[in-house]
Each structure stands twice: as structure tokens, then as C-alpha cells.
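=== Structure Prediction Worksheet ===
Name of assembly: unnamed complex
Input type: mixed (protein and possibly other molecules)
Chain count: two
Listed entries:
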Amino acid sequence: MTRINVHTYDISVSCHTFIANTRSTEVDAGSRCPNSPPAAAPNVILTIARRELLDTWRDGQVRVAAVILAALLLLALAVGIAHSGSREAIRSAAQAEDARVWVSQGKLNPHSAAHFGRYLFKPVGPLAFVDEGINPYAGSSVYLEAHVQTPARSRPAEDATFLSVFGELTAALTLQLLIPLLIILCAFAAFSGERENGTFRQLLSLGVPRTKLLAGKALGLTAAIAAILLPLLPIGAGAVLLNGPEGGDAGADLLRLALLCIGYLAYFAAFIGLTLSVSALASSSRAALVTLLGCWLAIALLLPRFAADAAERLAPVPSITAFKQAVSDDIAKGVSGHDASDVRLEAVKQQLFQKYGVSRVEDLPINFDGVSLSEGERYGNEVLDDHYGRLWKQYDRQAAVQRLFALVSPLIALRPLSMALSGTDLALHRAFTDQAEAFRRSFIAQINDYYTANGKFDDWRYTADQALWKQIRPFSYTPPSMVATLMPQGPNLLLLIGWTIAIWLFAAWAIGRAKVDA
Amino acid sequence: MSALATVIRHENRVLSADRASWIGLAVFLVIAIYAIASGATWMQLRQAEAATSVQISQERSAEFDRNLAVIEAGRLAELGKPNWYKRWSGAPTTPDSRAVLPSRPLLLIASNAGELQPHLATMRPASSRHSLLDDLKASTQNPVTLAVGRLDMVFLLTAALPLLLLAFSFNLLSVEREQGTLALVLAQPIALATLITGKLLTRFLRLLLPLAIAVPLLLALAVDPAQLGRAPLDYLLLAVLILVYGAFWLLLAGLINALGGSSARNALSLGGLWLLLVLVVPSLLNIAAAALHPPPDRAGLTNELRARLVEARNGGDQLYQDHALEHPDTVVAESTDPAEAFDSAKATLTTWLVRERTDALVAPIAERFEQDLAAQQDLAESGRFLSPALLFQAALNRLAGVDAARSRAFSAAAKAHLDALRAQLIPKVLAGQILRAGDYGGLPRFEMVEPSAAGPLGLDLLGLLLAVLLPAVLLMARLRSARPVIR
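=== Predicted Assembly ===
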């Protein structure tokens, strides 16, 4: 039990106070309060915290783990900053190139140009270097063409290696999985070790309230974790300020970073509480460690995956093939099955005949092919809204199922919060694809309107040129506001805070129940 | 020998009495059954998607054949189609064909990697050779699920199985020492080596062996019996892989215990090793692979394809004239019907010439892209020898048929199929012919050319066996050289 034998207590009962200290540190004069009862000693918590911190630091195993962890975190941040920087550079270059290619088209039938279409490339997100979120698994570009909306394509993970079962090493992964492990490593013996050494009885006999003991240990542990994480904060802030995308709002991004820190702090606090409670209740340090590692396995690895998997089972989505087929069937045969595309077009035709007082499409003053394409788009957009609406509803249901599982794992509440604040979650993906789709509709409408006003019915030889290509208004993307980002995360934030409070209430109860002797 | 048998018998009794461990095992099995059921559902969906895709294509072809027969009989009006339909249905660039990557019986263990694998392609004779598999890459699956990760058997076996084994073996000797029984045991005519061997063997036989049998059996139960027969050896190989990988972790636990630390310290050391081999080494290797061979720029490739297409299309008339000059014997008639602007013989020929030109322009760039991708994947492949977890995972991916080599083979087979399709249809394009009823039905069908996975799988297994030897040899050396730490 290396971890446990590191400290002994210096006890001075005669002056009704206790000075807990380690062998090699000087007795802190400030902690002596000769005539006051121990419970009122203001520095009891601080003294315990200081000792806990020192003990933690003296433990070679912990020191090595902390150094490795800090190095990993630093590496993850550096790689994240470099990656998101280069991805953003590639993206903006690709977007500019797409605009160039679009206007470089020569003379062409407008409908051919509408099928050639456009590509829009999704921005990586302001804090993607902290949390890549869904970016590797969500399409990074959207192809826009006539008639249909397709989901985003080119998921970066498709071009990645098989190497990591856990996904790429990011700061978020390190913070979500490894810091809790470090907390467990530092504190699994916090109480069980005292008990096994017999020092727990000594401490209590001095009149130190159990809750203060708990608070002191927690404070010391928090300080130890903070010592690793705080130095990294300026790097994050610096990356936000220096590396932010052009036209980004650095102030808002710093606020995101600050909120991110609060979220992770609550998560760590929950783990600290859990570790101390288990250590207080466990029959031995070994039992505490095994229980805690089991909890970690469940909370961090198994439950989130189970939740995601179960959500997919409970709210399934169609395959891309089935989805596309359903959309094209609905467009061709009509949603209700009795307003097929030719029937719908006939109605439009009759209206136009009435309006212009003609009886043949050839006699219309406008190009009926353009009308027909516009009508196809109009109906198609309704069908698409219906199908995509249902798809998004299934995603929402999946998120709700996952949120239910947050009751058994705080990580399931933290993860969406972290992604949302990093600008790499599904809501942001949806905001981008929705705006891309709005752009598709407007630019296809622009082309169809042009074709209606120009060209002749059934003459597909008609061509337009650069003048039209240049008329297409450029796409501009407005990321969702901070409020819009945070609002849907309310339940997750509440769950996370609820977890922390519940665990600490449990810890307070547990320390009260903790056995005095091994 | 009898000493070993005694140890095993005793250890068996102790293990049986340890209720917490059995709860752990039961939980693992329940999770495994869930993962297998979930993987089976996913696999059925994927197969259904492939079947739907093929069916859609076949129905489309059949409809074209039917309608062409009607048109040939001079009854176009009966179809109620627009004017351009006649030329479109007869244009040799209109037929489409699907390439489907067949699923291996063990596909269900890899629903994470499998989701990212292109397994379907739609192609027409004038499809770009360099973006064949892109067509169906758009996905309706929730990216959040993939970001968190599904609970698939690859994950469970690679990451969770070692933890289960370690939970049973992290305090192999230390618990005896802490209880004070180690001294008593070693006071008997039993060598420490016998004790450790017995304890490890008990866990191997009581824990790992049943799991290595149960998991393949459960997997076999989860798939359609018709598929089972296609690769019966896969199940045996899976069992062997589980045994070897599990043995590595058991031996590691034995080694750490032989070093004489406390139970808590052993748990921490083994937890640290697990983290190192399962998470840290793969992550670092991933970073190294990305740094040495940066992932190629997919957005850039997309733009390149489109820019060259525009370039070739802008020069389409010139391409047509050049072709006419080179082949004065086959004059393709120009249609006077304005409705046939896209599908007249000349337009179809120009479309093809533009495609041919675009592919030629893009080929060097696309090939470099694929080489870059392959270089990164190859580095990852060779890097797998750095961790048994990676070797094991790579082997499982191969058994599931979701490894990079098979994906590349699928891409190559899809290209070969495109060539076969073109071989049948492009001569018609060049000659200005149109399709006749029945032509659609006579198009070639896609056939997957399976790469042999035996070599790489053999290397995976060999690597794993070497990985097992390392803790085994160290353990033996330790037992031989050092005196046992009794208290």
C-alpha cells in the first residue's frame, strides 16, 4: 500500500487543537488556535487540503501519471490546434475554388448548370481544437443540385485509419476519460488508506468534523487537478485569439471556452465526490480501487456507447438508399399517391392556359419547361421538408433517449454540452445544412426563373452563359447565436449539475457512515 | 504435475466462491449478447439496403427494356412520357449498375468501422472513374452515434475483455500475500512458478476458454444459417484470436503480480498498461500517421474533379470535332430535334468524350490522392505491431471484412465493373447507336474479387503470439531470478 503509508500525523492534544502535517513539512503556525474548539478552526479544511496535495505530489505513481497526462493533454491540444487550423484553411480555399469553378462554366443549358450544382464546405467550428465532436463522422461538404437535397457527404473518418477504437486523441477525450482516471488514482485511498493506517480514528478523536475532513480532501484533490489543467488554459485562450477563423467572434469564443471550463469542472467535481464517497465506504483500498475502476468503465466507456446504440435502436433512421428512394417515389407519385407529377403539372398547365388565354404550351409567352422545373422544385421541396423533418425528429428522439441515460452517467450529459460549446455538435451541423439547403432552393429557383423567362418549350438546346452564373448570389453562413447554442443544452447542464449535487450529498452521507477502523 | 493440479483445483474453488467476479462475468456476457444482437440488426439493415439498391437498379433496367419494346413497336404515345424520353431511354449512357460489397458472416462485430466503409456504388458508363464510391457516401445515420461509438463486439472484445480478465487476475498473488496465506502456500512443496501457472491456467480454463467458445457460438446463432457456411473457419479463427489476446492479458497480470507489489498497486499498474496499449499507443500512432502522411484533401479533390469537368466540357465541341476527324468512317448523325439536346447520338458521344478527357486530366491527381490514403493506411497497418490491442483489432476488422485492404479491393472491383460496363456500351456510343429492348437485361453484373486476407491475418496472429511470449518470458525470467516477495 504505497499510497497510504506516506504520511503520519503530528498530534498535539494538549492545546486542544490538531496539527495534521507531514513528516517533512514545517508545522504551520497559522493553523494553531490554542483556545478555540477544533470545529471552529478556520484552517482545518485548508490544512487537510494542503496535506492531501502534498501527499498526492509525493506519490511517485501519481506524479508519473500526472506528468504523462499533462503531456498527452498538451499534445492533444497542439494537434487539435494545428488540425483545425489546417482544416479551416483547406475549407475556405475549397469554398473559394468552388465559386471560381462555378463561374468558369461556359455556355450551357441552365438546367445542366443546375445539375452541375455547387459544393458547400462546412466550417470546422470555433473550438474544434478542444472537442472535435461529430466533425469526423458528419459530412464535411454539401452537394447542391437541382431536384434533390442530399445529406452532407465526405465524412473525414472515412479517410482515417483503423487505429483508434476511441476516436482521435483530443483534449475533450483526455478530459472526459483520463482526468477522471487520474482523480481515482489520486484519491481511491483517501479514506480507506487513513482507515487502514489507523489515522482515521486519530483524526476523528481530535474532533475534526467528518464533513470538514471531506471538504479538505476534496479541496486538496481539486488543487492537484487544477495544477495540471490551469497552465493549459492560456494555451486554449491563446488559440482562440490567434487561431480563430476569419470574421469569427473571439469574445464569444472566449465565453464558450469559459463555459466549457465550468462544465468540465462540474464533471470533475462529480468524479471527486464519487471517488471520496467510495473510498469512505469501501472495506479496503483495494475494494475502493476496483469499485471505482468499475464505475469509470461503466460511466465513461460502456454506458455512453450503450446509450447511443440503444437510441439508434429505439428511434431508427432509414438507410440513405431507402431514404433517397422514398423521396423520389413521393416526388414522382405524389405524397398521397394520387397526385403524381404529371397530374400536378397538368393542373399548372391549365392555370397558365387560362391566365394567358391559350390552349397550347407552345403559345405561352413563357418557357413551359422552366415552369415545369419550378413546379417540380416546389413540390419536391415540400416532400424534402417532410422527409428531412422526420429524419431530424428521429435524431431529436435519439438525443432524448441518450439524455435519459445521463441519469446513470454524467459523461452522457457532459458530452453534448462540450460539443455544443465547441461548435461541433449536431445542432450546428443542422444549422449549416439548413442554410445550405435554403441556398440550394434560392439558386435553383433563380436558374429556373431565368429559364422560364428565356428559352423555348421543348428546346433543350438553349444555353445561358457566365452572365447568369455570375448572377447567383454567393452563399454566406451565419453560425447560430450563443443563446441558440446554449438553450437546447439546458437539460444537459441541469443534469450535470444535478449529478454533482447528488454525488456530493451522497459523499456527505457516506463520510458520516464511514467505518472508523479497518 | 500433481502440485499444479492441486493449485488448479483449489483456485477453481476460490474463483467459484468469488461472487463479485461472477457478477462481472455475467454483466460482460449480457453486454456481449446485446452487442451481438445490435450488430446483427445493423448488418441486416445494411444487407437490406444493398438488396434495395440492386432491386431499384434492376427494376429501372426492366422498365427501360419494357418501354424500349413499346417504343420499337411505334407506340411511344402510350407511355405518356415527354418527348425526350425516347432518346434518353435509348442512349447507351443511361443504364446504371450497382456494385455491392458482399458482407462477410462476421460483419456484425464491426458496426462502427463498417458504417464508414463504402459498400455500395452506383455507376453509369459516363460516371467518373475517380468518384465511383462517393455517390452513396452521403449518410442518413446520426453522426452523434458514430462519434460516441456503437457498442460493437470489436470494441467490447478489444477494450472491455482485457478489463474483465484483469478484474479476475490483478491480485493473483498479492491477495495471498495481503491475507498472509502466500507464506503458508510456499511453505508447502509448491514452487512459486507452479502457483502462478496454476492460477493463470485456472483463469484461462474457467474464464477465457468458455468466453472464446461462447462468443463465436453466439455470433453464429445471430446470422442467417445460409451465410454461416461461407466462412466456417472465421469462427474458429475468432476463437483462437480471443484465446491468444486474452492469454496476453492474463500473462501480463501474472508478470505484474510476480513483481511483488500490493493489490492496489497491481491494479493501478495493470490499469495503466491497459490504458497505454488500448488507448494511448493507438492514439499516438494515429497522430504520427497523420503527421507523416497527412490525410489527403478530399475537398480539394472534389474541386479538382469539377474544375477539370468544366474545362473538358467547355471544350466539348472541340473534342467532338477532333473525334470526327480521327474517325471519319463512323459519322455520328446530329439530331435536328431540339428536345434531344442532351441525349442525341452526338450529345451522348460528346458527354462520353468529355468524361474520358476529364478522367484523363484528373487521373494523376486522383491516383496521388489514393496513394496518400493508402500510405497512411499502410503506416497504420505496420504500426499495429506496437500494441497487441491493435493487432487484435486489425484481425477482427479483417474477419468482419471491413479492413482497408478489402475496401480498396472493392474500389478496384467497382472500377473493373465500370470498365466491363463501358466495354459493352461505349462502342455503341462511338458508333452513334441506340439501345434496343433487351439490352438493359444483358448488361454485366458486378462481381466482387475478394482479396486474400490469409497473409495479413497470419501476421496478426503471429504478432499476437509474439506479444504473448513477451510477458511469458519476462515472467519466467522473474520467477527464476528473483526470490518471491512473501510479505
